[in-house]
Amino acid sequence: MSIGNSNSPEEERPSTDDRSEDRLVERSVEEPSIGTALKKARIAAGLTVDEVSSTTRVRIPIVHAIEEDDFTRCGGDVYARGHIRTLARAVHLDPAPLVESYDAAHGGRPAPTPAAPMFDAERIRPERQRPNWTAAMVAAIVAVIGFVGFTAFGGGDEKEKRPVAEGSASPKPAPKQTGGKPAAQPSQVPPAAKPEPSDSAIAAAPKDLVTVVLTADTGESWISAKDSTGRLLFDGTLVQGESKTFTDKESVDLVLGDAGVVKLFVNGKEIKDDFQPGQVERLTYTKEDPSRDQPQAG
Question: Distance between CA 248 and CA 229 in Å, rounded?
Answer without folding.
Answer: 10
